[in-house]
TrEMBL record:
<feature type="region of interest" description="Disordered">
    <location>
        <begin position="1"/>
        <end position="24"/>
    </location>
</feature>
<dbReference type="InterPro" id="IPR045358">
    <property type="entry name" value="Ty3_capsid"/>
</dbReference>
<feature type="compositionally biased region" description="Polar residues">
    <location>
        <begin position="12"/>
        <end position="21"/>
    </location>
</feature>
<feature type="domain" description="Ty3 transposon capsid-like protein">
    <location>
        <begin position="53"/>
        <end position="236"/>
    </location>
</feature>
<protein>
    <recommendedName>
        <fullName>Ty3 transposon capsid-like protein domain-containing protein</fullName>
    </recommendedName>
</protein>
<dbReference type="Pfam" id="PF19259">
    <property type="entry name" value="Ty3_capsid"/>
</dbReference>
Length: 238
């Protein structure tokens, strides 16, 4: 019989015997393992259960929307709502109910009148989906004409009197309305570079930067250098 089996003779009183060779120990370990499985200690994590309560939703401090025509507020409101929905695994029906619960003033009045028309169109047994709500919401509060206006603003955007940081922020906000103008990172950097202040543009152009993030960093450094030179020259004139 192969060495190491329990029938293999061992020297009496040997201090080198392994505790794991003891059948009682193995049985105890196996029993503990299966008990752990039954209690759920080693069970695979369950998939998150769909659905969330209004209380859970409210704990995330969702913003309200009053209906005033500010395109940035409209998009920000939708984006924030969808962030919360995703984290809490809200159902489609809950998304519409909780979102419309946070409409106030003009927006609330609009929804009360619109809801009846939409429900009449769909039928009472068909709930309004989140995608359907989002479409009619954006069509009303962020119409295509306004989106096209933002796209034109992006096309004509230059740094002007803004700092590089302010220009970059405005660039990112407006770029969402004209993605077709900057289909990749290189085009995005080129568009940003063209709009920079001439003095800053001359300093970064030779670097041939094709990363938007790196270009913003380099442009900010160039701006700081220019400002230091201006301050230095002003001090010399005094």
């Amino acid at each position: 019989m192969a060495p190491g089996t329990r029938n293999h003779p061992t020297r009496e009183g040997s201090s080198g015997s392994n505790q794991n060779d003891n059948p009682d120990h193995l049985v105890a370990a196996a029993t503990q393992f299966f008990q752990s499985m039954v209690s759920g200690q080693f069970m695979a994590p369950r998939a998150p259960q769909a659905g969330c309560t209004l209380e859970q939703f409210s704990r995330q401090h969702p913003p309200t929307f009053d209906g005033r025509l500010n395109s940035m507020d409209v998009e920000s409101w939708i984006e924030r709502m969808e962030q919360i929905f995703e984290v809490l695994y809200c159902t489609d029906d809950q998304k519409v109910k909780y979102a419309t619960y946070h409409l106030t003033d003009m927006a609330n009045k609009w929804w009360k009148s619109t809801w009846a028309l939409v429900q009449l169109e769909l039928g009472e047994v068909v709930p309004i989906s989140w995608e359907h709500f989002k479409k009619i919401f954006l069509d009303h509060f962020f119409p295509r004409t306004l989106q096209e206006s933002r796209a034109r603003q992006f096309m004509d955007l230059t740094q002007g009197s803004m700092t590089v940081a302010q220009y970059a922020t405005t660039f990112m906000v407006l770029s969402r309305f004209a993605i077709y103008l900057i289909p990749d990172e290189e085009k995005k950097a080129e568009k940003f570079e063209r709009g920079l202040d001439r003095r800053i543009r001359e300093r970064v152009r030779t670097l041939r930067i094709r990363s938007f993030t790196e270009l913003v960093t380099r442009a900010t450094i160039a701006e700081e250098d220019l400002q230091e030179n201006i301050e230095y020259n002003n001090q010399r004139k005094r």
